[in-house]
Every structure is written in structure tokens, then in C-alpha cells.
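Progress note, sequence design subtask.
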């Protein structure tokens, strides 16, 4: 292929306040799309079917220690997961903790293993060996609830001293019990993901309702910024599941909800009664994350639905439409032109020469796809009819098998 050579890999220029286009400001921080993959799910099938280009990080959850500090949970499919992720420039971290490890033997193991400097050193050594053995990119600390005790900060400090000189990431997922984490500990993490869900759930059937409302996401972001966490170190958690109450009591993955109620993608509540986040809410939360944080986190990837109603697809479409590359700041950017700009009835795309299929998509300022057209090849100039579009600002995105590039244009009156 000649021309149109740019490897995006989500190394995109962050645009602040895209909804106020007149005040666009570029930043260099890549927007993170972090997805958890549980070790108890069918990881081997996931590896074969998942499009790794849709995420920037995968957290393999959970690998919790036995009494001696050995990480002993299932590793089936982990090596293959890491290989496929790395082939797509996706980082893989292992997560320790989780809600189920907040009590009982798992909690006791954690608290004993971090109770003295020597015990912490021995435990961290075993973590590092594990990370090296599986060629992992870092550790995600998801210690929650009663498992967080007075030794948590010292444990994180020793982790940072050990992992960061090796170029390994140290991150945290925070929610239940995070008020016990000292603010001085927070800068030690490369980034923090907010578990902005489980406000209520099927464990308390007397409190039916939305477990991950939009206002709750806003509140968590504001609360953690108030605690001193910088925007570039904060990511908003999004749920790919919901809870049922009354006759529908239980936990439901989004894919399961959609299989039971085919129009569930357009709602946040179905049946009698199941609450979750549908497409529109996930889109609005992704916009919120773009404005207020540096990424999104997903619990969890295997709960998504396939096809056009995939929540991960909604996230990617929103991110791709609102976070645009700037060809003057991007190594290897093609001489890609859009004109006239403003345009009236026709948009000319010049500088794309390829024998491979080219997809052209137009998004409105809210991130909704309004036009899509495929071309089998291009000799350098593509003419696209836009007479049916309303006047306003749009994003034109070009995609080939390997490359993505986007620009803003204006449709005139």
C-alpha cells in the first residue's frame, strides 16, 4: 500500500472540550480503554474471537495469593492472551484482589503477606517472578473493602519501588472501602480506575434501581479529583452487566440481557425489573470520561453483546469520533486533505492511494454515525456526497485494514 500510512494504535491527540470546537486544545495523553477479562471465564475462546484493537489494556482477573504468596488462580489461556494482545500493541496486567477476596481466607492471606517489610518484599518478589514468567506489563491492585488495612500504603510503596524501575505498570481499581486509602498513596499508581457501579444490587432487594447511574459516575470523578488525583491518572469504570430485582432477581451480563430483550440496547431498564447501562448511557459516560478523565475501564469484556449493539463498539465509535489525530503532530501522517471546507453538497478526500478497501464514516458532533460508505480502492481522490447532512461540524474518519485517520470539516448552509 502506498500513501495513507499511519499506525494509530490509539496514539491519538487528546482534544479537550470537543463539544466546544472553537476552543480545541490537543494533548499527548493516549485515551485508555481498559477491559477486565476474568480468569474463570473461557479465556481460550475469548482469545480466538476478540478484536484486540478495541482496547489499549487488558486486566487478567484475578490471581490471588495462597498463604505463601504464590498466585494460584487459573492461568488457562493467559500466555496466548498476552501474545495476541502484544501483537496488537495492547498491554496486559494481572489483577489481584476483587470483591470476593475482601473477606475470609483470601483477605487473611493478603493482610498477613503485607504485614511486615520482609513479608511484603517476599510477596512482591513472587509477583515480579509471575509477571516476568507470563511477559505481563504490570500489576493492577484491586484490593477492596475490609481487605484494605493500615499496611496497604506501605505495600503499594514497596510495589512502586520494585515495579517502576523495571518499566512495569502499577494501577489500582477503587470503590468499596477506598476511603481507607491514604491520599499520599494515590500518586504511586500510574493510573486509577473508578468502579462507578454497584451503587445498589441484587444483594439488597429492598433497594431496586439503577446500580450505575450517570450522576454516580460524575460524583466519583469529582470526589477523586478532589482527593488530588489528576485527570491524566483517572479512568471511569463502565459496567457491561446489570442487576435484576423482584421476579428477575439476579446478575445479568449485557449480552444475556440483549438475548432476552432484543431492544434492550436502546434502554437502561427492561423486564420486571432489570437495570443496566444501554448504548446511549455508555455513549454519554464515554463522553464524560473524555472530558474529565483519561480513559474508561470495563467490567467485564466477556459480558458484552456481539454485533452492532456491542457496548465496546459504542465506546470505540465515541472515542474515535471525538478524539482526532492532528497530522502536523503525528509521525508518518499522510498528505490527507479534505476540501472544500466548509463544504456544501460534495466533500473531496485527496491523498488516499490504496488497492485495499477504504471505509469512510461521517460522525456528527455528538459522536453518532450519520453516513458510511465503502470503497474497494482509491486512486488518490474520493468524492463523497453530503447534501443530506444538516449544516454543522462533522468528523470524517477513514479506515483501512490497518490504518485510521480522522479530520473535522464543516457542512455549510
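Output:
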Amino acid at each position: 500500500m502506498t500513501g495513507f500510512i499511519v499506525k494509530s494504535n490509539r496514539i491519538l491527540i487528546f482534544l479537550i472540550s470537543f463539544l466546544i470546537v472553537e476552543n480545541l486544545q490537543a494533548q499527548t495523553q493516549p485515551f485508555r480503554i481498559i477491559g477486565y477479562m476474568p480468569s474463570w471465564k473461557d479465556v481460550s475462546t475469548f482469545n480466538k474471537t476478540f478484536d484486540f484493537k478495541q482496547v489499549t489494556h487488558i486486566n487478567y482477573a484475578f490471581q490471588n495469593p495462597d498463604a505463601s504468596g504464590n498466585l494460584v488462580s487459573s492461568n488457562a489461556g493467559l500466555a496466548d492472551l498476552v501474545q495476541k494482545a502484544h501483537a496488537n500493541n495492547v498491554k496486559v496486567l494481572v489483577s489481584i484482589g476483587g470483591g470476593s477476596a475482601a473477606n475470609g481466607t483470601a483477605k487473611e492471606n493478603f493482610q498477613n503477606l503485607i504485614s511486615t517489610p520482609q513479608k511484603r518484599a517476599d510477596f512482591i518478589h513472587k509477583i515480579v517472578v509471575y509477571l516476568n514468567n507470563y511477559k505481563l506489563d504490570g500489576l493492577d491492585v484491586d484490593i477492596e473493602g475490609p481487605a484494605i488495612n493500615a499496611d496497604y500504603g506501605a505495600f503499594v510503596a514497596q510495589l512502586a519501588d520494585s515495579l517502576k524501575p523495571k518499566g512495569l505498570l502499577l494501577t489500582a481499581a477503587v470503590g468499596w472501602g477506598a476511603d481507607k486509602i491514604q491520599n499520599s498513596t494515590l500518586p504511586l499508581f500510574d493510573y486509577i480506575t473508578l468502579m462507578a457501579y454497584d451503587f445498589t444490587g441484587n444483594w439488597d432487594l429492598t433497594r431496586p434501581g439503577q446500580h450505575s447511574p450517570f450522576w454516580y459516575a460524575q460524583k466519583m470523578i469529582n470526589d477523586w479529583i478532589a482527593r488530588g488525583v489528576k485527570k491524566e491518572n483517572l479512568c471511569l469504570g463502565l459496567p457491561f452487566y446489570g442487576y435484576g430485582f423482584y421476579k428477575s432477581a439476579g446478575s445479568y451480563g449485557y449480552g444475556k440481557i440483549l438475548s432476552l430483550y432484543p431492544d434492550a440496547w436502546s434502554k437502561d431498564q427492561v423486564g420486571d425489573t432489570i437495570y443496566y447501562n444501554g448504548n446511549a448511557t455508555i455513549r454519554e459516560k464515554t463522553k464524560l470520561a473524555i472530558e474529565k478523565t483519561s480513559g474508561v475501564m470495563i467490567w467485564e469484556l466477556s459480558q458484552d453483546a456481539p454485533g452492532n449493539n456491542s457496548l465496546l463498539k459504542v465506546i470505540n465509535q465515541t472515542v474515535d469520533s471525538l478524539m482526532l489525530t492532528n497530522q502536523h503532530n503525528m509521525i508518518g501522517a499522510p498528505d490527507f486533505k479534505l476540501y472544500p471546507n466548509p463544504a456544501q453538497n460534495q466533500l473531496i478526500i485527496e491523498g488516499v492511494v490504496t488497492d485495499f478497501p477504504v471505509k469512510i464514516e461521517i460522525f456528527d458532533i455528538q459522536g453518532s454515525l450519520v453516513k458510511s460508505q465503502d470503497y474497494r480502492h482509491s486512486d488518490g481522490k474520493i468524492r463523497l456526497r453530503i447534501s443530506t447532512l444538516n449544516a454543522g461540524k462533522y468528523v470524517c474518519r477513514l479506515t483501512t485494514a490497518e490504518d485510521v485517520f480522522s479530520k473535522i470539516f464543516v457542512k455549510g448552509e
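Residues 211 and 399 are 36 Å apart (CA to CA). Work on this subtask will continue into the next period as scheduled.
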